[in-house]
């Protein structure tokens, strides 16, 4: 690995400084100066500029001592710039053109700088800036750009452009050869089909957008409620959103109909998570007596500038007309992002971002027009054919001796031989692609599969990298509680009844104690909490652990009353007395729901929860009330969540905390079992959480609260100050227990991943989930095999740390990589090339905490650095960018909504269907298209060879051999069906392809269609064309018409026999096509008397001459094919024999 990274001897300080200046000048000159987005990667005067002078393979000691003996630079900088003419020829002109175009586009679409904003409640007219319209637009074209856009997409292919030029040349009388329709009909047909297909797709997009933009919402004004369209909503509007309605733009949550002052929203279309999120209304506006009072107060929201991160927000709410002015800090829990759905109650919010500035739009990328690798390869081959065409025409003119107007003759020869590049290639391939799509959708082994992009089915057979989401793609997103560990004793699923008994006995004891003298029962409790060193009984430890799990969470029980309507759920709670069957739990993490459901199963039930209190029901039916004093939410940085509660009966204050073992191991008191047990559970594929507690006195809590509220209002470094205050509490906590929860995998994920690995496909898991969870699933799904090591990339924040960590990673061999999104960002900023090179050598890579845009960025990086085909699989709205960026996007129609499956090229219902989609359909589509493409080229080459022989025999005259209908018929009715029937051919049975996925590796090398196979077809065409023409010329006796009749009939027969030679597995439709074409030709002979002598055709002489020529042209090829199969059979034939 080390060999790939360039090393350069260090230069003198002066030389290095000069080079730095030069380099700075170069990057500024190339448009990569300040303000350009790549500039950050080449910052010269950053804190770690001296790292430039350091190799990426230096020891830690060397790093500390700064002993730089080598000089390494990222490759982008090393490439020497070629000078002068050489540079211009070697791609310089391309660089200049693209630079000019980029500059023009930049001038036309100058992006507005995004700024922070002050938004006055209900006063859109007070906005200082102009904000974008709140309209959704997914269309590629508009009315004016549709025709030019579609034509550009078609004519950027060399093949189509060439035909356009050839067809236009027929309007010039001196160049006219044959009839106009022979050129314009096929081209017109191709364009008509393409324009129709694009128009239908575009119209569907337009309809979907219109439907979204014309949804009606209630807007609050001074005069009351008015209805507005979604697209007419402005920044500053007060919008009312009902239950189950989509939120139209990014808003700050002002008030709700729910008594608790909070509501739930569903975010599955934004971040791919199916669980509901709790959002809290701004308390100042929630306390107002009536809705209309929102206009009687003078208040504004200060919001940070629009950004990508959907998990963070900083702002303040200020009410100026109160005395003193009220300031409230706003965070992510006070926001309602666009594209989420209100799950409970009615909400009112003030719009802060619209249209292009909303989080959901900023996180989606524009879909690109995908072009398959096979199409690009065929495009290269058509260019080679074009060069051959020019060479052949030039040779003909040279042999003529450049007599007369030779350039006109040259052009006529170009037109005569234009069949070398067949227009039917595009038609056949497009029809073939449609046929493959139809076959995929008809396959009963993968029901429900939909092909949404019909232009790239061959890509499925060429994939090397597969990026997959985790939640809902590899897993079902259903959590089950599996294990509770108390340090000395562990409980699994089969021993949960013991826990239940302990809980019942401990609560019956406390109840009997409490029913005695309450005052006397309090002191011993206090004494116990102050001396945790005393070994407590197992029963009391279980009691404490279960109580902690039942209290330390963000779960809310929701009662769906069957009788009451949505608005009455609040009152229904009181009447129902919390009856169990109507209760469902809602939380921002399915793990938490699994924990609370488990405490219910062992006897301690969460029955109600609002922002300030929580109620638990004991096994005997007693209700315990706890006041919620503080909640510290889970974030990806702190990896833990905490809650401070006050027990109503005893007034005790307890701080409970649960989190990942990495975060908790330093917080809890010393113990000798935690690390080991966490490792054991992780190996079983369980997600672990450590639970701890700490009792607080009233004075300790009051001191903490005053510091905490002060930190929350600070405008600078708010997050840091708050974290520091919370950390003062997190010391010497008492470890209660360790829990293990299992996320169940989708059906057949393990065998599918194993099959893909055996097929040579490298799998990368890109997930927004936590590092621990991602690692667990990577192990349990066998993405990382049991024998492999896992290298967890330590969090890095700057260049130096990234440098050291990459060094540490490079020393590992054959181990899977696990890296977090923010560390990845740092590595890509400074060491993009080196990082990708190292990661590509890993058997598996797991990237966790990835934002949607990061997922897409990783896909693009792999495409750029490896040049291989990538595939992305996902099931949520957060996977759309990645699916659209990949060469081939597969969406799973799952619980997380349809957004991913609608944006994808292929939509499937289960992950396990990918195996068959790639191994069987990908293989067939690629092999068939390769055979079809080369055969269509062969069909054009053979007739061009005959034309060349014909012209050279008749004194290099630029006269067509076959005229008018013969040419059109040859490309269509006489040979079309048999050639097209190649789309039914298969080299391997589907069962064999699935049993031996190793066969797939051959496809990625692209051997079915390469310059080598193409050359073989060219030689076959020249041989056959020569035999057919010379044979006809040798065997004809009197009239020239006989030459045409003999050679054309032999040509048709040869083509039909060649199709039979190419086919590997016969299908009844192929036989029908062969005989149908032959029948059509024989039937049409009667009408072709202007080309053929009918009397001569019916003679025996004609028959034996045609037969002799056909045998000579085809028999040698059959013999060669037989010998090749015997002497060096392909890998698949060894398996099937």
Detailed description of the structure:
- With 1137 residues, this protein is of the alpha+beta class.
- Among the domains are: 233-355, Calcium-transporting ATPase, cytoplasmic transduction domain A, CATH 2.70.150; 378-446 and 916-1127, Calcium-transporting ATPase, transmembrane domain; 465-474 and 746-908, HAD superfamily/HAD-like (Rossmann fold), CATH 3.40.50; 479-504 and 539-557 and 582-741, Calcium-transporting ATPase, cytoplasmic domain N (3-Layer(aba) Sandwich).
- It has 40 helices and 35 strands.
- The strands form seven sheets. A nine-stranded mixed sheet has the order 16-35-34-33-17-29-32-31-30, sandwiched between helices. Strands 19-18-28-27-26-25-24-23-22 form a nine-stranded antiparallel sheet.
- It is elongated and about 125 Å long.
- The model is unreliable at 1-16, 22-54, 57-83, 517-534 and 563-577 (pLDDT under 50).
- One of its GO terms (biological process) is phospholipid translocation.
- It catalyses: ATP + H2O + phospholipidSide 1 = ADP + phosphate + phospholipidSide 2.
- Keywords: ATP-binding, Golgi apparatus, Lipid transport, Magnesium, Membrane, Metal-binding, Nucleotide-binding, Translocase, Transmembrane, Transmembrane helix, Transport.
Task: Give a brief description.
The chain is an alpha+beta fold and 1137 residues long.
Q: How many β strands by DSSP?
A: 35
Beta-strand portion reads 15-25%
Tell me the radius of gyration. Answer: 37 Å
What is the top-level CATH class of the domain at 378-446 and 916-1127? Mainly Alpha
Q: Low-confidence runs (pLDDT<50, min 5 residues)?
A: 1-16, 22-54, 57-83, 517-534, 563-577
Largest sheet: 9 strands, mixed
